[in-house]
Structures are given as C-alpha cells and as structure tokens.
Specification:
six-stranded antiparallel sheet, mainly beta, 8% helix, Immunoglobulin-like, four-stranded antiparallel sheet, single chain, 542 residues
Amino acid sequence: MKKVLQWMFVAGLMAVFSYSYASVGPSPGGMPPTDPLSKGSSLDEVCTIDYIGLINGGGNPGSVNWPGGTLGSSMGVLQFANSCTPGEFLYAYCLDISHWLYQDPYCVDIADEVVNPLYPEQFPAIGYIMTWYPSASVFDDDAMQLALWKMSPERNPSSPDYGVPYYHINAGKGYPNLTDPPVYPYVNTVDHTDLVLNDAANDEVLDALGLTDGIAKNVILAGDQLLTTASFEIVGGDAILTVDIQLVRGAKALSVGNLLLGGVKLLISADGGTPSASELFTDGTGHAEFTVTQPLASPPVTIHICSHGLWPKGVEPCEGTVSQDLVVSSLTLEAVDSVCVSETFDWPLAAELTSFEARASATGILLTWQSASESDLSLWEIERRTAGSTVYAELAQVSAANTPSGHSYSYTDNSVQAGIVYEYRLVDVDINGVRTVHDDYVCSASMSGHDTALLSDYRLGDNYPNPFNPETHIAFALPEACEVHLKVFNITGKEVATLVEGRLAAGEHHATFRADNLPSGLYFYTLTAGSFSQTKKMILMK
C-alpha cells in the first residue's frame, strides 16, 4: 500500500510518539486479535518541519467567523517537509483558528490528545470525522477543516469559556440557520459566510456528535480488540449465524482517556453468506450484533469485521515560537489504522455421513451406510431413481440411532427388478424437521436375477464397514445349497457369536454382526460351507 500511513513517517523519528497498526485474521473461535506490529521508535535527534503550503485549500470564497475574530477562507490540508526524512511529507489540519502558519521552523513534538473529561465526545468526534470523511474534493476538504474548527475548544486562557468546545458555547448564532434562535449544539458559534459550505460542515459535526441518528461517534484505537462469539440455528434449508462483537479497549485508549465503548463504526462483510448489515455501531457496552444467512448446502462462510481508527495528534513549533495547534491527518480512508477480525464457520449438521454403498444380495439390493456423528437426528430417508432419471422418489425411512459417535445402518430394497440399474441417495432429517440431502454420496446397483449358474464357487466378502462400531455386515455367496456356519471368534480363538447356522440355498447372502457388549480389538469370522472354509479378520473400534 502506497504510504500506508503517510502521516506516520514521523513515527520513527520522535521520542514522544508510539502508534500501532493491526490487521488481524483469522481469529477462529472468537479468540482476541493481537497487535503484533508496533510502529514507533525513540531517537535522540530533534526533527524540524518546514511549512510548504495548503493543498486542496482556498477553493471557497468567503470567510470564517468565530467569537474572537474573522479569517479569510484559506482552509484545507497543510503540507510540511521535514529534516529527518527528506522527500517525505507530513499532512495536518489546524485546530487553532487564530494562528499564523508562516512560522519556520516547527519542531517535531507529536503527543496524544487527551480527552477533556467535561466534554468526552469532543475528541472522539474529531477522530471520527478525520477517519470516516476522506477528502474527495476541495469542497470536502474545506468542510472537514471547518467541522474541526467548529468542535475546537476556546484557546484563549483569559476567556471564561477557555477549553470549552465551540459547539458548547452560546455565542448568539442560530441553528440550523444563522438567524434562527440559538439551540444546542451551537455549531454556528463558528460559521462560514459560504452557507452551503457551513451546512456541509454542520452535517459532519451533527453526525459525529450523534445528533443525526442518536449515535455519538467514536473511533477504535491501536491495541483495542474486537472479540466475537457466534451461535447458529437452522431455519428451513438455511443456517442463520448470529455474531456478537465486543469491543475491548487497550492501553492506548487508557492513555488518552477515551474509554467510551459506544459509537465505534464496524464494517461487515462475508464470503459465502448474506450479512444482515454492511456496517454497524457498537452500543454503550461495546457490543454489536448481526446475522449471516447461508444455505446449508453451501458451507463454510467467512465473516470479516473491520474498524478504522485515528486519534488527533498535536504538532508544536520549536521552543520560543508562537504555539500552534495542528492535528495530523490520514488524508485517505485506506491510510488509517485498522483493527480487523476474520473468522470461518461451518455448520454442525445433524449427521456426518462417511460412506454409503449399494450391492446386490439374494433378496434385493442391500444398502449400507455409516455416520461419523449424529446430533438431534430423527431419521434417514432413502431416495431412489432409475439410472437416467432426474427425479428421486422416497423409498423408505429408517429411524436414526442418534449416537454422537456415529452408527452403521443397512436396508434391503426388495422392490427391484432384474436388469435395471437403480441409484440411491440419503437424506437426514433432524428433530426440527430440517432435511439435509447428501448429494455427495450417491450409489447404484442392479440385480442379475441370481441365476445359480452364474455362481461357480464359494465366496466370503470383506466385512463392511471395517473398522466398525458396533455393527458390521458380511456378504457371502454359495454356488449350491448346503449347510452353512458363519461364526465370530476373538483373538484368543474363543467363539463370541454365531451369525448363520443351517442350510441355505445357492446365491448371495449377507449377515449382520453387532458387538455392543464386546470390547474393542481384533476379531475373526469364519465361513464353513460344504467343503469350503475361509477366515477373515475385522477390527472393532469403540
């Protein structure tokens, strides 16, 4: 970024200046952002700055009036060269109306502006205007300068209003028009004879003070944190994420006396979702809340929360010269300090499906599936269509086990016809009736008619799933009718279950083994059919 903070060039030159820039993300789980980049160092040398002139200034005719006098319309941004970093420039606005700029040289002595406890909104409002009203034209720049003058305090120590912001002083100027009876906040105590410019400056002041929308504005400061917590609910096919933001002030805010939490502007955006607002202001406790709506089929969503901040800085002339009151300017919105948080959220669905398979069996098409986790799950819907069709129809419903560690399921479709390829998919339904379609797990199978001539030998299949908990399925095939024994043994050779015992017809068969009461470990299953015998192993993992 070109001159990320143009006014910060003096940060490496001064003994009395330390500011920070923080751009933080991601911050999963609402962890507080850090402030890792600290700009500022201490040098013994004293730098001087030379006033060059106004930029974007003097574009509007007329003059400024205030209780102490009148000034011609030479407003705008002040530009300075400096002795310590040749080629770099410092930009500033005047806060002292009755001053003369042509003093040479200035000393670089920039210090924090401390909030006057009697008028705590003054400097937050100034910081807000300088942060969120970027100069876009000569008119805008002059309006910003005039707005800062309207909020500047009376500088004359002999005045009874010394230190009081001008908008608190009833000098007899009416509002909203100069000829109207005076009303708070007496923003026309300082006025411009160009009434269009005067009204534009008033608008900025009234907005910053919260008299337009009821929100007294403030700014975030380096070292502040934006903490987030989030919750979600499912409505229809959408997940609605509710995000709560908490502003926590840091050491910088303490040093300048700005501990107010309300009125800090937040920019809201999201990747993959629709936020309820694009900008918010914190309330008096530092909180703000918004929602993001995202279709369940399109996780995850990433939210971004950013706030820009700028605090007025004073630039004083060398010792022995007339005091000047200037504040350093950022000039553009991109050039201000920022605190940002980015977080990514995925929706904890009612079921996490890990596998879904279909295979022909002796009586139909056997469907088996495995979930890794289930929460508030009511049932599974099995949907079927023939290959080439675009429409699924519900085939059956299977009650959910609703176990947090997942579960194994099976279902046999007995309504199939030989030679037709069928496609299957699953839909989980939670206790609120929310349906989640698992389009990423689609399987297909067909029946051949199970002609025994097609089976030329015995076959024992691998159990599925493997590892399993607590249920697994075992398929086997017989080329002829015979006595069949299918048994399960533990690692010591002890028989723990008999799954099949008796005479079976030729064809494909399957058996289900449940190990609810058995410990985790290695097990063996043995198929004995006629003169055929084969053993395979499986793992129970609870």
